[in-house]
Specification:
The structure holds 3 protein chains of 3 kinds. By secondary structure, chain A is an all-alpha fold. Chain A contains 13 helices and 2 strands; from the N terminus they run H-H-H-H-E-H-E-H-H-H-H-H-H-H-H. Chain A has one domain: ABC transporter involved in vitamin B12 uptake, BtuC, CATH 1.10.3470. In chain A, helix 1 runs antiparallel to helix 11 and helix 10 crosses helix 11.
């Protein structure tokens, strides 16, 4: 019988692990949205990343190459979104949805050969120095490589947005592209770059699932995490730190039903079908979180970038 | 003041034969212009005359199709605003190029190719030093979105100055262009702006002001140039000897009467009575309208004078039903508005000409016909038959000379002025109480006069008899009211004139049109005067909180 | 010579139709290229898809019509919401709830001896109420709290899926299999093959009454959107909510009602599918009709009559997908077609013209 301490420890560790793909997807989407582009195809890009990652790893025998391939695939797909939303100034919502379909379908095609295949190389997991700490030790220091990457990504992203001049330009483009344009900042270039970054991170998210956390490929294996990521961006107020917190929290929520089913004293154990209600938790929580964000006082700094979802069409420039 | 100070002999800027075309429109047509250091040059013209385009060519936003630009006797070619900034030519646009969620220092330094790493402390110090050197009061740490319009303009000017002369801050800038700088300023802020500009001139800057405020430009500018249809048509080297009348004539190309025909109108019954109205603001915690009292009679125009942000919009929206009231009463045509829905208020004859004509006043993707019937279609039951309204619609298009390819054209393809005419055609129809916000914004001189005339006519005539009878017929068909009663009602309505509550940024317009002027400040009426008694300086003082002339 | 973009002033129906057709063709072509890159023989795949669905005789057409029925209803559901600029991405969830409610009524609540018209009507009503309520949640959250209906309706899809799983694996399960017992005969939507005894040509044709129902709904929707005042106000709302409020339309209420109606239609699609095809509730009975409905609505450019064509196209892709491996191909083609249509919008909004060169002067 697991002690409460071990239960919490395991939950935290699993939460951080499960939250990592969410983290990547959320941060990626956050970057794209900060530049003003709404990308609803995250789920499709994650799936494509997952399938590509396994596919390439299987063929080349290298998980690292698979990871790289996943990021490239995600970026490539997101560039299609960019081309249609930015250059053709089309409706970003429908474009993202269409891309989601495309990504999911492509993933199915790409991953067809590797469904259920065993022996696919995985990304390494290893312990760091303080992994013996109670409660937080396993969560922070005994994880897969991708989780550590996630730890690094968050402060990097925050620093990039708030403390570099490129980040300043990003914020300007997202809030007032006309002003940014008048000051010589390339609005399209900025948007394309960050959409591509978002796609790459979504691909990374998918690969972190298929090459590390739940290794292997199965159709639809992301089961909506891409969509939860879109919600988490709102929850996080378009800020990397809060988004990270949200991602790990949701990782834990996703994990909870599995852990609870191991606890014999709960009624769940007698009727496994009740587990479906537990499975609903992450999705219910996402909605609750969105409601809370709206009910709570939302100051200007926590709101969406002003130009989010609106195409920028500029007048002629000195060409 | 624009004394006869002699100009520098060699011009700082020479525009030689500049041309620029956008599609089928020749926006700038072989323009020659000289600007001298130390002068404020006024550039006048109607909307679409090409003055903004011409200056955008100088500021590097566009490339000329023909002609060239000389700067201090060197030919220059700007590929982008950046090039122009590097050559110390900057432009302050009408709509500020500021990002509201960033701070002042972030905005000011945005366009500069600074180092990769941001260093807030150093940046703030730089901004504060530059501001002091240029005598502009700004708070470098404030969020631009929190600042008032006058302050934002100062930030914008500072931004342009700093970006145009990043290294040599002794000579602030060679050429500065301002596009409609006083459009959103109060009289006091305008005075402060011109003081800043004159200071810059004394340091050798050449300044161009694009404006349509004839009197202001006449007083401030050393020389004036007038553009019409892309060409520079007249120059006035001695503005002090010119009347605004002549300037307007040059702009339009013919003698134009700026005088408005004000038929006498006797104010009748009270159509709008407001007592103690309080309306919350969307942005701040304090109410936008506080304990406001107002009375509006049929046959009169009440003009609100006030700097933007003192509750005008909230007041209008609350009367229109677009915003909830937090306290007080509004009585519309004798009925308590709190019990009335927007539809019911419209049925009583309330009309609203909104500030935002594109997305509030019209549905941009719908056709002109569909937009014109906004106030009419509810009278005819659950099935829509647009053809029913086609004749009336055509009539309105002709009457107001709305330039459109037809009633089926999408509203968003109309120019700003024509869109406003669509809104007016609709709102002045069968209207008893009209709320008008910036009714002539963005319109050329001819259209502006036309609109003002329409407002004055609405004031004296109110609903026309024919449309009233037609309305009555419609209602009789649908609601079973007897026809005779409806016609009697229509006759009564036609007898009394319309009541108009007006607010415009153009104080001159407010004063010219209104029978009574009420200054609104901080959400309440602080001063009222009748048309004959009103004095601009007094009004200006009350607008900015200066109070009575002898107050300390 | 420089090209420039100018807004297009007139958008004739002929142009719209031509662009839509061109978009689909180009998209399918691009899809073929993608297939070739992925190692699938594109022409053979496309030929297989279309011969199995549209050009393979009566059976093929019948299969396609059967698949087109829920697609038509879901397309109409999404169209209605989109007209008000509400993105009802969760139509799939509303469809599932509708199927659930219909099953509950047919198998577990009403006596099986009820006459078929009454039974079917009550099932339909239950589905409409369930789907409408499910969408109403998102609608209320959006109207009154401003919560994005895209995310909330989508989350509700996953919740609906789990809910159905619970019932289908649990209390309603037949002997432990993930399906319910078959509906009583009175709860079956009549299909053409029911008359095969009298007319042997009809045997094997599984087209059911649902299609007739869907077409009727389509007509009603056209009347509502294009010809009624309510529809006019909806179009104003979709174009500019501020203008709608200005006109006096109660915006929040209208958005809520629109979402509920949209959900009702999607719920009806669910009922029609379980009562017309499989005659029971089973796990994964829907290959994502609700999601495809989004694509159908967009392809039809929000025109109710165009939804019919769109439904058949996507139904063809779905039916044909059985003939090609892997199954993801049809989803991929759906996505490509959607993207093609969105990109094609560009042609409708702008014209590309050549700029004349001004002679340079000194």
């Amino acid at each position: 019988m697991a002690s409460p301490l071990t239960f919490v420890e395991n939950l935290l560790a699993a939460g951080v692990e499960r939250g990592t793909p969410l983290l990547f997807a959320t941060v990626g989407e956050l970057l794209a949205e900060r530049s003003g582009v709404l990308n609803l195809g995250v789920e499709g890009m994650m799936l494509l990343g997952a399938a590509s990652g396994v596919s390439v790893a299987h063929v080349t025998g290298s998980a690292a190459l698979g990871l790289l391939a996943a990021m490239l695939a995600g970026a490539a797909l997101s560039l299609v979104h960019g081309a249609i939303s930015i250059t053709l100034a089309a409706d970003q919502v429908v474009c993202g949805l269409g891309l989601g379909f495309l990504g999911a379908g492509l993933a199915s095609v790409v991953g067809a050969d590797v469904v259920g295949v065993s022996g696919v190389p995985r990304l390494p997991a290893f312990d760091l120095a303080l992994s013996g700490l109670p409660l937080l030790g396993p969560a922070l220091f005994s994880q897969n490589l991708v989780v550590y990457l996630g730890f690094l990504l968050v402060p990097l992203c925050w620093f990039y947005i708030q403390r570099t001049s490129t980040g300043l330009r990003l914020r300007a483009v997202g809030e007032n592209p006309t002003a940014a344009d008048a000051q010589g900042i390339g609005v399209s270039a900025t948007r394309y770059t960050h959409v591509a970054l978002g796609g790459a991170l979504a691909g990374l998210a998918g690969a972190s699932l298929s090459l590390a956390i739940t290794p292997g490929w199965a159709d639809g294996m992301t089961s909506g995490q891409g969509w939860i990521a879109v919600g988490l961006v709102i929850f996080g107020g378009w800020d990397p730190l809060r988004s990270a917190l949200g991602a790990y929290l949701f990782g834990a929520i996703r994990r909870l039903p599995l852990d609870l089913q191991g606890v014999q004293s709960l009624p769940l154990f007698r009727n496994p079908n009740l587990g479906y209600f537990l499975d609903m938790l992450p999705y219910v929580f996402t909605v609750l979180v969105l409601v809370l964000v709206k009910i709570g006082r939302v100051r200007r700094r926590l709101g969406p970038p002003a130009s989010l979802g609106q195409p920028f069409v500029r007048g002629e420039r000195g060409r | 003041m624009s004394g006869e100070t002699p100009l520098e002999p060699a011009p700082r800027v020479r525009l030689c034969g500049l041309s620029k075309r956008f599609g089928a429109v020749q926006a700038v047509d072989r323009v020659d212009l000289e600007l001298h250091a130390g002068e404020i040059h006024g550039l006048l013209g109607e909307n679409g005359a090409g003055k903004s385009t011409l200056m955008c060519l100088l500021a590097g936003l566009y490339r000329p199709d023909a002609g060239h630009i000389e700067l201090d006797r060197t030919v220059v070619s700007f590929r982008s605003p950046r090039d122009a900034m590097a050559a110390s030519v900057g432009m302050v646009h009408q709509h500020f190029m500021l990002v509201p969620t960033l701070t002042v220092w972030e905005n000011v330094l945005l366009g500069t190719r600074d180092r990769w790493l941001l260093r807030p402390a150093r940046a703030i110090a730089r901004v504060e030093q530059a501001a002091e050197r240029l005598s502009l009061r700004v708070d470098a740490r404030a969020l631009v979105g929190d600042l008032g319009v006058g302050q934002q303009q100062r930030v914008e000017i500072l931004r342009v100055l700093m970006q145009a002369s990043p290294h040599d801050e002794t000579q602030p800038i060679r050429v500065m262009i301002l596009d409609e700088p006083t459009a959103v300023l109060s009289p006091d802020e305008s005075v402060a702006l011109f003081a800043t500009l004159r200071a810059l001139c004394q340091r050798g800057c050449a300044i161009v002001i694009i404006s349509h405020k004839l009197d202001e430009v006449r007083q401030a500018a050393r020389r004036i140039s007038v553009m019409r249809r892309g060409r520079l048509v007249e120059r006035f080297p001695r503005p002090a000897e010119v009347t605004t009348h002549q300037l307007a004539a040059a702009m339009v190309g013919e003698e134009i009467s700026l005088e408005l025909d004000r038929p006498a109108s006797a104010p009748g019954e009270v159509l709008l009575r407001i007592r103690g109205l309080t309306v919350a603001s969307s942005h701040t915690g304090r109410p936008a309208v506080r304990d406001l009292d107002l009375e509006l009679r049929s046959g009169e125009i009440l003009g609100l004078a006030g700097v933007a942000g003192n509750g005008q919009v909230e007041l209008m929206e609350a009367i229109a039903g677009l915003r909830p009231m937090d306290g007080g009463t509004v009585e519309l045509c004798g009925q308590d508005a709190a019990t009335l829905s927007i539809r019911q208020r419209i049925a009583l004859g309330l009309r609203y000409i909104p500030e935002d004509r594109m997305y509030t006043g019209t549905a941009p993707s719908l056709s002109v016909l569909e937009n014109l019937v906004f106030r009419r279609y509810p009278d005819h039951g659950p099935w829509l038959r647009l053809q029913r309204y086609a004749p009336w619609c055509q009539q309105q298009i002709e009457r107001l000379q709305i330039a459109t390819s037809g009633p089926a054209q999408a509203a968003r393809l109309l120019s700003g002025g024509n869109l406003q005419k669509v809104v007016l055609a609709r709102e002045l129809d069968r209207a008893r109480v009209i709320l008008a916000l910036h009714p002539t914004r963005g319109l050329d001189v001819r259209a502006t006069t036309q609109v003002r005339q329409l407002l004055l006519r609405a004031r004296s005539e109110g609903a026309t008899l024919e449309s009233g009878v037609e309305h009555a017929r419609g209602r009789a068909r649908n609601r079973g009211a007897t026809l005779e009663r409806g016609v009697e009602h229509a006759r009564g309505r036609a007898r009394s004139g319309g009541a108009i509550l007006l607010w415009s940024e153009d104080l001159e317009e407010v004063l010219a049109l209104s029978d009574r002027v009420a200054v609104i400040k901080g959400g309440r009426i602080v001063y009222t005067a009748a048309h004959d008694e009103v004095e601009l300086p007094t009004v200006g003082r009350w607008m900015t909180g200066g109070g009575a002339a002898n107050a300390t | 010579m420089r090209l420039e973009l100018r807004p297009r002033l007139h958008r004739s129906t002929r142009l719209t139709l031509a662009v839509s057709l061109a978009s689909v063709t180009v998209a399918l072509g691009l899809g073929g290229v993608l297939l070739w890159i992925a190692g699938v023989e594109p022409l053979a795949a496309l030929r297989a898809i279309f011969s199995a669905s549209l050009f393979g005789g009566a059976f093929a057409l019948s299969d396609t019509t059967v698949k087109a029925t829920p697609l038509l209803l879901c397309g109409l559901a999404c169209l209605l919401a989109f007209r008000a600029r509400l993105w009802n991405v969760g139509a799939e969830g509303q469809l599932l709830l509708g199927a659930w409610a219909a099953t509950g009524v047919a198998s577990f609540w009403l006596p099986p001896s009820l006459p078929a018209p009454l039974m079917l009507t009550l099932m339909g009503l239950a589905a409409i109420v369930a789907g409408g309520a499910w969408a109403g949640i998102s609608g209320a959250l959006r109207s009154y709290l401003g919560v994005s209906e895209i995310i909330s309706s989508l989350m509700l899809v996953y919740i609906a899926q789990k809910l159905l799983n619970y019932f289908v694996f649990g209390p309603w399960s037949e002997r432990g299999f993930p399906l319910t017992p078959p509906f009583p005969r009175s709860a079956w939507l009549p299909r053409l093959s029911d008359w095969a005894d009298g007319c042997p040509a009809l045997s094997g044709l599984t087209v059911h009454l649902g299609m007739v129902l869907a077409l009727v709904v389509c007509l009603l929707m056209w009347l509502l959107v294009q010809r009624s005042v309510w529809g006019f106000e909806l179009r104003i709302l979709g174009d500019s909510p501020r203008a709608a409020r200005y006109v006096g339309v109660p915006v929040e209420r209208r958005m809520l009602v629109t979402m509920i109606l949209s959900g009702a239609l999607a719920g009806l699609a669910g009922m029609v599918e379980v009562a017309g095809v499989v005659h029971r509730l089973q796990d994964r009975f829907s290959p994502g009709y609700g999601f495809v409905g989004i694509a159908v609505a967009w392809l039809a450019r929000l025109n109710p009559l165009g939804v019919v064509l769109g439904a058949f196209l996507f139904a063809a892709l779905l039916v044909g997908a059985r003939e090609v491996q892997p199954g993801g191909i049809s989803i991929m083609l759906q996505g490509v077609v959607m993207l093609g249509v969105v990109a094609g919008d560009f042609v409708l909004r702008y014209r590309i013209q050549r700029r004349e060169r001004e002679a340079a002067r000194g």
